[in-house]
Structure formats: structure tokens, C-alpha cells
Amino acid sequence: MDLYDGYNRKVSYLRVSLTDRCNLQCFYCRRDNLVLYEREEILTIEEIKFLISVFYRNFGINKVRFTGGEPLIRRGIESLIEGLRDFNLSVNITTNGILLKEFARFLSENNIGVNVSLDTLIPEKFKKISGGYDLDRIIEGIDTALHLGIKLKINTVLLRSVNDDEIFDLIDFAFSRGVEIRFIEFMPFVNEFIWRKYFISEDEIRDKIEQRHKLYEIGEDSSIARYYTLENGAKIGFISTVSKPFCHNCSRVRITSDGHLVLCMFDKFSYPLKQFLRPKIKENELVEYICSVVKLKPKGYIELREKQASFPMIKLGG
Ligand code: SAM
Questions:
Q1: Hey, is 113 helix, strand or coil?
Q2: Which CATH number fits domain 3-316: 3.60.20.30, 3.90.1150.10, 1.20.1090.10, 3.20.20.70?
Q3: What is the pTM of this model?
């Protein structure tokens, strides 16, 4: 049975946050006074696998993405991934890349697609943005992953006066490795003052790029990103939730690491699934519950625009 929301959008893509912990502290992602989930609140690896299997067996979802926090710090991620081997599913992760080098062989052997978040190529700036010292390690991770044939993309959140001077260097970095880079608009997950200060729209970024290069739009079939090539063949994409929302195409739902179903990143509601897992599994009731709450998926960002996202990004995972 396919799963449809109240606007007749088919839900086929599940994003699962494996943890709300992260080994970086990016200033634009972090929220003050963030209360992390208690250990007992977090879904076990078995519970996560079961929930994915419920979406797979009952609703035919075809794509899963693990995120966080930082998914590669979640203990047991290997057994989770191995446990999905027999499913006909595209399995991907979004990572900051710090542990990518260590995991690359495992990810490659399990055919896992990897999106690496990379906002700067300058170590001091990396430290300022994320508090981390490991930019070299991330780049080594990217190169190791590519060497092992992993399908990899780079995602960059461009922030005004922080990294918008690196657009061309980041494009070159990706192009020299034969990888596509997507520029993601900064979304209002933090307080409005910070968001307004750093937000840059896709149009502004494109204008900057077009001062040096001609951009050729590729009519590529992607529900969320718009892709272009430069005259040298470099491929870039834009994911512009704020200025060009793609909610009419949205096929995603999310599960937080404490087991709440979130139907839209900007929704203030979430739906507890753990009640159907603990103390014992009630699959039929769970399936019915998912079918009914999915109908409540908001139409989209435009409708919710005046409100700031209520879930912190670190608990949702982008
Ligand atoms: N730790 C992993 C990583 O760094 O990719 C996964 C979680 S992280 C929250 C996922 C992505 O969300 C990162 O690319 C991060 O840059 C991005 N992000 C965080 N806050 C954002 C915001 N307000 N708007 C847009 N992207 C954001």
C-alpha cells in the first residue's frame, strides 16, 4: 500500500536521525539551552531497524537517509546498515565527514551514498564555524570515499560574510574531484536575528557566480535541487527551501532519534511512535497510526513561513 498525505503527495523517503549528539558545534545549527534526549529515550538500533522495515514492508518506501546529530557517532550504525542489506532500498547518510575516512570501506561495501556537509576549505574558518580542528580529516575522508567508489555529494550552507567568499573555491574543490556540490539556503531554525544576518538567497548566489561564469540549467529530474553546469562542466545545484520551496514535491517524512514522526521540518507537531514499540510491538496499530497522521503533513513552507521552525536542526538532521 502506498502512503499518501492529505495533499496527495506520495511518501516514499524516510529520513532517520540516529542521534541528537554531534562531534561538531556549528554556530548556525546549535541552539542555546538545547536539552539532549536522555539515553533511555533514544530508539535502539533494533527499534530503528523495525521502524524502517515497517515503512518498507507496508508503504513501499524506497529511500532512507541516516542523519543526526552526526550519524557516524551512533554506536551500532554498522549493524543497522547491515540489517538493511536485504531490503531493496537506497540507503544514504548525511555526515560532517569527520569519521568518514574510518567508515569509508564499510560504507562502500554496503553501497551507501554519502552527502558530506562542507562549508569552508579554510581551517581557521572551519574552527570558527564548527569549533572543530579536523578539516584535513574531512578532506581525507572525502578523498578516501571517492577512491573507494562511494557515491558522494557535497552540501554547503552559504552564510553571508562567513563563507560566501568561497563559492568559487568550493566549486573548484568539488569539480576537481568529479563531485557535484549543492548550495543549501540557510533556513530559519535559529533565532530570526541570526537567520536574517546570514541568509543569502539562491538568486544572489547565482548572480555572484554569473559574474564569472555562464550557468547552463540542466533540466534534471530532482524533486528538490535545481542543477546547472558551468562552461568547464562543473555541476552545481541549489536547494532553496526559503526562496524557492519545493514542498509540492515533498515525499519525505522524518523520524527523530527519540522516535517521533515529523512530517515537515517546519511543523511544530510531531507524532510519538515509541508507544507502539514499548513495552511490546504493536505493528498493526502502528501502521494505522502512521496512515492517519501522515494525512496531517502540512502543505508546506509557504504556509508556515511566518513561524520559525520549532524543532532544532540538530534533532531533525536537515
Ligand atoms: N552532522 C551531519 C552533517 O553535518 O551533515 C548531519 C546533520 S546536520 C544538521 C545536516 C545538515 O544541516 C548540515 O549540512 C548542516 O550544514 C545543515 N544545517 C544546519 N542548520 C541549517 C540551517 N539552519 N539551514 C540549512 N541547513 C542547515
A1: strand
A2: 3.20.20.70
A3: 0.97
